[in-house]
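Lecture 7, part B: from sequences to assemblies.

Below are the input chains for today's worked example.
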Amino acid sequence: MTDPLRLYHDPHVLCHGTGAFHPEGPRRIAAVVEALEAGGFEMHRTPSPERTRDALSLVHDPAYVERVREAASLGPEEAGQPFTLFDSPDNPMSRSTFDVAQRTVGLLLAAVDDVMEGVARRAFVVTRPPGHHARAAAAMGFCFFNAVAVAARDAQQRYGAGRVLVADFDVHHGNGTQETFWEDGSVAYLSVHRFPFYPGTGGAGETGSGPGLGLTVNVPLGAGADDDVYAGAFEAGLDRLLGRFHPDLVLVSAGFDAHRVDPLGGMRLSGEGFARMTRALLAAAEAFACGRLVSVLEGGYDPAGTAEGALAHARALGGAENPRIDSALGRS
Ligand SMILES: [Zn+2]
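Predicted structure of the full complex, as structure tokens:
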């Protein structure tokens, strides 16, 4: 029996300390889990596969992985102590950071395992820290390890998933993910985001190179976009990419910092905007990837706004009525 949707969370991820005033704190995840459970969703806690540490090297320089481990081991254990800043002033770390960042990757690998092995059809991993800004050998933008990039590579190696789509609706451009697959003809990257904005990349002219030319699709938007503008731009970018790339697996960098109450994003989305983008991704997964879709939480810095977005995302992933699936499958 295949679950239509499985949600994954490990309470240990709350232990990555960033300081009382940092936007990427544990409260945002606690709020998401509380909203999902109140909405009737059950959270699965799954141990990281043993290969998790090795899998990091599919994307990250092993010396960088070791540098994160060593710096975290010297970090503060207690709240109230100054946090170690790692690579960037945006990236405070505590004693638990390496373990939590690695566990986040492990949760996503376990979710991909379940979807590829038919235990679940779709999955959503509720975790932190986010990952899409992390580069091969550098932390930035609250991110240490690029979980979605590692999962794409792992799915290719372990399950022979030939073509993987990484779709990213976080309000920030996923520079680390783009960079990882820039010249890759087997992993496509779609991002809708505010531009110009942190981290500075993601212009419409950035489209990949070599075998990857045309498989990076950036949809930059000015501040203030609402549901129609943001989700409409995302759908148009997705349709454009699907015209030339048919994925065997859909991975989603699900950030909710385009929500209208987010303190960082400057956009005006409601839950419906996130639901609409989710329905489009679900239709793509049904049309090309046997329904296989695995989503991981990225940003979202207002706890209530992030919870509203994540609940709308999970409900849409639950796959009730979805006219776009009907049209993708030729049902009218
Ligand atoms: Zn973000």
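Note for the exam: The longest strand covers residues 187-194. Keep this in mind when comparing with the next example.
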